[in-house]
Amino acid sequence: MLAFAARRLAVSLALVWVVATLVFLVIHMIPGDPAELLLAQGGVAPDPALVADLRERLGLDQPLWTQYATYMGGLLQGDFGLSLQDEHAVADEIALRLPRTLELVATAGLLSVLIGLPAGVLAGLRAGQLTDRILSGIAALALSIPVFVIGTLAVLLLAQKLRLVSAGGYVPFATDPLRHIGLLLMPAGTIAFGLAAVVLRVTRGAVLEVLEREHVRAARARGLPAGAIIRRHVLRNSLTPVVTVVALHLGALLGGTVLVEFVFNWPGLSGYLVRSVEARDYPEVMGIVLVVSAIFVLLNFLVDMLYAVIDPRVRQG
Question: Any transmembrane segments, and where (predicted)?
């Protein structure tokens, strides 16, 4: 197990280095001079002397390989550089906003599993029956509605019509735990609505596949109780695809919660990324993209470890 984990960890670290290099190169291939863009006002070309001075202060006058070495050296120390807009530390801003987005995505993932997994198992065990048709129909409906529509409808119905919750906003957990949870549940539920449908469909398919395997048929033939068959054989063997789907979707959601954070005024990392792209603040964009990519790689590493626990045969690969 340790050798397997060491191999996967080495691959993950190599992927993070590749991503950091690609992000650096792609950002520096974008046309336009950041110094000129920062100094330009009202479409008037800035003073060339001011542009040259700003390029020197930002290190943009250095050769590309020198900038790359400085960039990678900073990453090893947890330094993502300074914002081009106000020269604040990018790492500090990411450290402030990332936990909020992680909390939102993790809560959505937990809700989707708590709802989608049992519903998928039930649909698989009742395949072709009324229960299966109802659950599959709800899943199809959930997948067909865009997340911003779900969020808007939730605000209109739950916040404005029924006045059960606040329309949006953010309060630190330490300040008011109950209000924080109340403000968190609606955006997290909005994300979980579609993700739970994905979990349901994947779980249903996995359950149907496992039910057709020889060892499950043999267990039925021996007269084992249905509950024991489900616990020992069906659930364990159905978890692998569910783990994969949830992990990949959570990784994608880290950078894809822009609309939800906007609708519910949740001050997370996605809104920060949009602002940075609009301002063409390269250090901010590189820092955010790299952090999101590193978390995505970490999720894949954790999925590999879960595979090894669920199915020991994976460790031989």
Answer: 9-30, 104-125, 137-160, 180-200, 239-265, 285-310
